[in-house]
Amino acid sequence: MGNKRKEECRIVSQEELLDGIYSMWLQTEEIAEEALPGQFLSLYSRDGSRILPRPISICEINREKKQIRLVYRVAGKGTEEFSRYHPGISLSVVGPLGNGFPVKEAEGKTVFLMGGGIGIPPLLETAKQIRGDVKVIAGYRDKQFLTEEFARYGGVFVATEDGSVGTKGNVMDVIREKELKADMIMACGPTPMLKAIKAYAEERGIPCYLSLEERMACGIGACLACVCQSKEVDAHSHVHNKRICKDGPVFLSTEVEL
To answer: Could you read off the pLDDT of 57-108 as tens digits, one per residue?
Structure first.
């Protein structure tokens, strides 16, 4: 886990990519230097009535400019408030948090980066940093976002629920239709998708890393709202649980029960 620190970060730019999905670049001092793909930041609201920060995964890291990009979906009052902020506004940010994806282990391998919906953004920096054969498999409800940016770093395969773009269905349908093969899998998205990927990977003995970032509340290990079942007993709560924010959000698929 990185040295988490609280920093005042200035918003450099913000744009709406799709209905309700925003891309924000933040100017940091030290967070961008330490951040890893698959980690996340916790953003505090400027409205005093909302005490818990909102965890948002890192989409891109620009170490030269010390900037971090977040791509997030407006899901509640906190993210709705962030979406109204304009460049120049400062936010209290804690990060980088979590463990991130093991990009070094992927060197020279064929890697599936599998994302669903708002689980797709953290795979962008991951794709950028992998020195291997990257195949991005992205599942959307209908409209796609970030696919052109992913295309710079590997092959992009798209699934849409309505079949309007790419394969009709989900990310697993893409693998079957295109007969794709991988040495390693890294995935982020809704739990049903991760369950299917976990089963697929374990059946074939493919090392698979799952980011369970959708199920977090505080992001700092205090509230225990984000625990997932694990194979081993957790030293903190003495039960078969891991805290997604502290121990994860990225886990080897064989370590967790979904």
So the answer is: 999 999 999 999 999 999 989 999 999 999 999 999 999 999 999 999 999 9
Phi-psi category of 224—alpha, beta or left, where left has phi over 0 and alpha has psi -120 to 50?
left
Please give the DSSP secondary-structure letter assigned to residue 103. G
| Per-residue pLDDT reduced to its tens digit, 14-30 | 999 999 999 999 999 99
Residue 55 carries which side chain, given as an amino acid letter? Answer: P
Q: What angle do CA 95, 59, 241 make, to 5 degrees?
A: 60
Give residue 97's identity as a one-letter amino acid code: L
Place of tokens 């005042």: 8
Measured CA to CA, the distance from residue 177 to residue 165 in angstroms comes to 14
d(CA 153, CA 150) in angstroms, rounded, equals 6
- How far apart CA 108 and CA 114 sit, in angstroms, is 18
Which two structure tokens, joined as six digits, stand for 83? 């979406």
> How many C-beta atoms lie closer than 10 Å to residue 141's C-beta?
11
> Measured at the alpha carbon of residue 119, what is the angle toward residues 117 and 123, in degrees to the nearest 5?
120
Instruction: Count the residues in the chain.
Output: 258
Task: Find all residues with CB under 8 Å of 32, minimum gap 6, and list them.
Answer: 61, 62, 63, 65, 66, 67, 68
User: Taking residues 171-182, what's their average pLDDT?
Assistant: 98
Q: What are phi and psi of 197, to 5 degrees?
A: -65, -45
**Three-state secondary structure call for residue 253:** helix
* 51 burial type by CB count under 10 A (0-12 exposed, 13-18 middle, 19+ buried): exposed
Between CA 152 and CA 115 the distance in angstroms is 17
**Confidence at residue 239, expressed as pLDDT on a 0 to 100 scale:** 59
Nearest CA among 143, 141, 119 for reference residue 209: 119
